[in-house]
Amino acid sequence: MRAAMVVHPASGLGRAGRIAGTVADRLRTAVDDLVTVEANTVEDSRRLMHKARDAGLDLVVVVGGDGSAHQGVQFCADTGVALAVVPAGTGNDLARTLAGVPEDPLKATDHLVRAIKDGEQTTIDLGRVDGGPWFAGVLCAGFDSAVNERANRMRWPSGPRRYDLAILAELAKLRAGRLTVEADGDRTELDATQIAIGNIPFYGGGIPICPDADPADGLFDVTLVRAASRFDLVKMLPGLRTGKHVHHPMVTTSRTTKIRIGEANGWVAYADGERIGPLPVEVTCVPNALKVVGRTA
Length: 297
Description:
By secondary structure, the protein is α+β, with helices and mostly antiparallel strands. It has helices at residues 15-27, 42-53, 66-76, 93-97, 105-117, 143-153, 160-172, 230-240; strands at 2-7, 33-38, 59-64, 82-87, 121-129, 134-135, 138-142, 177-183, 186-198, 220-226, 251-256, 258-263, 268-271, 274-278, 281-293. It is built from 8 helices and 15 strands. Helix 3 links the parallel strand 3 and strand 4. Helix 1 runs parallel beside helix 5 and helix 6 crosses helix 7. Its cofactor is Mg(2+). Residues 1-133 form the DAGKc domain.
């Protein structure tokens, strides 16, 4: 087996860089040939992984968080090259979806080594943005993507505190948007606060925004929050960690294979935590588009 290990050293406030050597040593016990690649930016990651493709790889191992995994998905999608993730970032939602993967990155590496030796692989679905990238996790627009936009502009503080402050700032200026949703031939227009289109249950570091999403069923799970007040959102927040928010009267859920979302007063879409761009956005669920080491939960 020929493998490439792609490390994003800054992931997890530098944790990925600190453990990279140990991860590589352990991986070499399970593969025949290992090339290591260090990427400091998204552009580095894309360039170096495409260069590595010429080596005829069987496996790409990403050491980092969901942004790093997102770049690995772009490389491996629909190619037959398997993807594995060592969770060393702050979110780690794709790794969380795979059964039995420990949260500790070195324990996760040992788990991965066993899976490689046992030949444990499966395929999962991916989302594809029309004219744009693939995504393995959740595409969202509305309040949560506005929080991402604000947090990305902030230079202080670092880590999760930045998102806490961004949430408070966006709550203060909360406005519903007029949203158009077209799914599998049906068209709906309504005032909404946010929408999440999930291939997996989690985003934002373990929040089950689409709690019943299954990355192997050929369908997206859609969680839509209708026009909500600040009080409604604050009341809904505790249930987000358990998935109980879907029972709130302002929330509706559905399943679809293809969906287009438009309008909504300048909303921006994010997928796997990466900026996609302003609405409208059309996405399709592509069954069995990605080979992964391990199995789904």
